[in-house]
Amino acid sequence: MTSRTTQDKTVIKTSRPRVYIPRWLAALLAPVAILIAVSGFTAGPAQAGGSSAFSVTNAAQLLSNPLSLQAGSPDADPVLVGAGDIATCSGTGDERTAALLDNIAGTVFTLGDNAYDNGTATEFANCYNPSWGRHKARTYPAAGNHEYFTTNAAPYYSYFGAAAGDPAKGYYSYEVGTGAGTWHIIVLNSNCTFVPCAAGSAQEQWLRHELAANMSKNVLAYWHHPRFSSGALHGNDTSVQPFWQALYEYGADLVLVGHAHGYERFAPQNNNGALDTTYGIREFVVGTGGKSHQGFATPVANSEVRADTYFGVLKVTLHPNSYDWQFVPEAGGTFNDHGTALTHGIPNVGGTPLPTATAGTVTPTPTACALTFSDVPVGSTFYPFVRCLACQGILGGYADGTFHPNNNITRGQLAKIVSNSAGYTDPAGAQTFQDVPPGSTFYDFVQRLASRGYMNGYPCGGPGEPCGTGNLLYFRPNANATRGQISKIVANAAGYTEPAGAQSFEDVPPGSTFYDFVQRLASRDIMNGYPCGGPSEPCTAPANLPYFRPGSSATRGQTAKIVSNTFFPGCNPAAKQ
């Protein structure tokens, strides 16, 4: 397996089984590794006709790793194929590129400006549909500026339907591949006048949430306007810098764009557009779908390959630990660009910030991820989980810089942590509990969970809990939360509703208060128990089930681990509580 790593964060990325070669044989096969890394017919100046040169991509990376052969057929790995700037009724370029799609299996992407000139319903019906439209059932589109020449890009959203995402947003995500070979694909809307792209916008916050929730996967993103481009008419576009910034911080590998009518490949670049062969994002400009050619201006920094003679499509094959690219020209075209590169880990950009998000998803306040607590050092049991939640503003420490991971978690603290992790932002409503009045620290969080039935209170009238107006219940926000209570709250907030299954713990039998919730978390390996045989916990043959201890108090460290593994598995998917 490989790992995506920052200075103080490791997210495990599993890969296919590997067959390792002895060192003596690896040395003999080293030239093969170089050949694998060679990308043909690329480099330097803009390519015209059949002129070409070779470039070596990631040869050093391939040779620095133990040489390995992945089991399984590479043909089974997912393929994305497509382009932008596509269909016009005044030309036949889109017919020629659609003919390429006819012979390439996989998921089709579009990079915007799908139907010229104005993205009208007539242009989609008469210009796009007869060519690329025959692949509509396997297409995930992005919107271009020409789509928005018609009010709210309505024909674009009508034509593609649910595949184009929410018409009010135009950004969405999907996945290709399975298991260790899964890639998370993010489609963004770079028409920033209509759907804001700025840092802090709903779209940028959603992007950060998507990235935080999928840190254990490789990521490819695409949209219309290029962050970097040598195009004669459409050059660098800084309006999409917030996209690039977030993607770099989270270790994304690839970005595909259009708008500039030509083909351009960039070397991997960091968040500031500087060459970064370790963590950089590789951008492809693929405005070659069939509309026209626009030529190039002076090449911008890190531009490796440029060509605008032929229409064509980019085919990207996504492997667990690498990707292949191939520019496929229209019939008769002689320009080609292909290569292979390894995926990479997550950089440390002054501490990687984790996300905010739109309503209905996680909405923490971003905090510098460099923060640490003196009593939760790097390498300690709860470090990755505490840091994961603290960096999102979901939990905090004490004024002296400590976290106290072994202190018990209170019911009020638990309400805040779970409510924020689940992304609940609805109005708190009328007071439910006598001891949690409006304006108190945990009021909003307690009310949101109580309104959903996830946390309950205790009848008034007990010692120190007199009945007042309305005979409201008492919540006891400063009382310790138990493991059973945590299982109920977390399982409900995560939406786990499947049948509970066979009994896993001696002290949580079927029919008991927390049985269903404990089983649902245990089946996911989020909460485990303690071996039988301890004091007052005898083993019962033949199962000798462990004990869960549902009435025991949970610590702050344990709670961080449970909540992190439930709502943010990408923070550390290997370890469970």
Characterize the structure shown.
The protein has 577 residues and is α/β, with parallel strands linked by helices. 22% of the residues lie in helices and 15% in strands. The protein contains 13 helices and 20 strands. The chain has helices at residues 23-37, 59-64, 93-101, 121-128, 154-160, 202-213, 241-249, 383-390, 411-422, 443-451, 483-493, 515-523, 556-567, and strands at residues 2-6, 9-13, 18-20, 38-39, 46-47, 55-56, 68-70, 79-83, 107-110, 139-140, 172-176, 183-187, 218-222, 254-257, 263-266, 282-286, 303-307, 312-318, 322-329, 337-342. The strands form five sheets. It has an eight-stranded mixed β-sheet, covered by helices on one side. Helix 11 (483-493) packs across helix 12 (515-523).
Give the strand tally.
20
Helix content: 10-25%
Strands of the largest sheet, in order across it? 5-17-15-16-14-13-12-11
Strand coverage percent = 15-25%
Gyration radius from CA atoms, angstroms:
27 Å
Number of distinct helices: 13
What distance separates the N and C termini?
Answer: 22 Å
Overall mean confidence score, pLDDT: 82
Largest sheet: 8 strands, mixed
Q: Looking at the structure, what is the overall shape?
A: elongated
Structural class category: alpha/beta
List the helices and strands and how they pair.
Layout: E1 2-6, E2 9-13, E3 18-20, H1 23-37, E4 38-39, E5 46-47, E6 55-56, H2 59-64, E7 68-70, E8 79-83, H3 93-101, E9 107-110, H4 121-128, E10 139-140, H5 154-160, E11 172-176, E12 183-187, H6 202-213, E13 218-222, H7 241-249, E14 254-257, E15 263-266, E16 282-286, E17 303-307, E18 312-318, E19 322-329, E20 337-342, H8 383-390, H9 411-422, H10 443-451, H11 483-493, H12 515-523, H13 556-567
Parallel strand pairs: 5-17, 8-9, 9-10, 12-13, 13-14, 14-16
Antiparallel strand pairs: 1-2, 3-7, 4-6, 8-18, 11-12, 15-16, 15-17, 18-19, 19-20
